Amino acid sequence: MPCTVIVGGFFGDEGKGKIVAYLARKDKADVAVRGGVGPNAGHTVMFHGKEHKTRMLPSALVSNQTRLMIGPGVLINVNVLLEEIKNFDTKDRTFVDPQCCIIATTHIEMDGSDPNLNRIGTTGTGTGPANADRALRKALLARDSFELSEYLQDIPSIVNSSIDNDKTVLVEGTQGTFLSLYHGTYPFVTSKDVTASAICSDVGIGPKKVSEVLIVFKAYVTRVGSGPLEGELELEETTSKGWTEYGSVTGRLRRAAPFNFDLAKRSIMLNSATQIALTKLDIVFPSDAGKRQFDNLSSDAKRFVNNIEKEVGLKVGVIGTGQELDDIIDRRY
Ligand code: IMP
Ligand code: MG
């Protein structure tokens, strides 16, 4: 399967980063290319006991043989990107499209001070104001940036030719379906569409180039920032279940609710998902932490997974059972 698109099925923070990183290593991906909004995303990957946090680079960076790309649809914070390239030592395998739009300091200031954006509870990373200026045709692009010049490459051409040559390509989405500007809980959404079609457009591939759309659901639902969350638990309940999480970009407490089948079904429809990756099964079933074979799961955990498959009509091909990269049950087609 040359081209797999990975997208979030709920409100972001489903654990896409870990899934992408696992797939990149396991399937020896040649290319990992990021779509999505920009540095409002925060991906955490635990590899060999070390935590890797990225906001700009694809999470696949723990796979040394994988080339790391950022598609033209994505907004770039130049400082954040250069810092990550330095910290993760990926200079010789990072490539940025000249048409990526640059986030300016004024965008970040506006994201932090605009009362309407504060009400929505944005991440304050300047992405909304930058996309607004992009639509107004007055933003700067990566091709205008001297600091990025050595990384510039025609990303759609590389991605399409890699797929045509049967190389393994991972297209990494960010945020989650119900944060989509078109399909989410407007106005409590991010500044563009983030479903699979949009992620493909971000990196310059058409629908015929995609072999799999892997939709990532966490075993429960979380949401950071404002907006509706059906079945939202009281903080005490979230804590007692061990579902308490903090945003990796903003440090804000994430609100939590049980797995939502209606949202899952709609999100599968909106993304034409072909398989599910289910993460954090071990948080709901602590006795199953670290298991790597489906047969070894407790009967409660098996029932939980089987029930999701039955209710939404799609295979759960990948299951996350712990923080470490290889704490995964891989039962893809
Ligand atoms: P913005 O994308 O910073 O404009 O924020 C709009 C809404 O999307 C806010 O509720 C954010 O908390 C949320 N959001 C944006 N990016 C992410 C993400 O990567 N994970 C989770 N929530 C996000
Ligand atoms: Mg995140």
Written description of the protein model:
The structure is a single chain. This protein has one domain: 3-Layer(aba) Sandwich (Adenylosuccinate Synthetase, Chain A, domain 1). The chain contains 11 helices and 15 strands. It has helices spanning 16-26, 78-87, 105-113, 115-120, 127-135, 155-164, 196-203, 235-241, 261-271, 281-284, 299-312, and strands at 3-8, 31-34, 43-47, 50-54, 67-70, 75-76, 94-96, 101-102, 169-172, 212-218, 220-223, 255-258, 275-279, 316-320, 328-330. The chain is globular and about 55 Å long. It starts with a strand and ends with a strand. Bound molecules: inosinic acid and magnesium ion. Inosinic acid binds next to helix 5.
- Small molecules held by this entry: inosinic acid, magnesium ion
**Could you list the spans in which at least 5 consecutive residues all have pLDDT below 50?**
none
Number of helices: 11
CATH arch. level architecture: 3-Layer(aba) Sandwich
Strand content: 15-25%
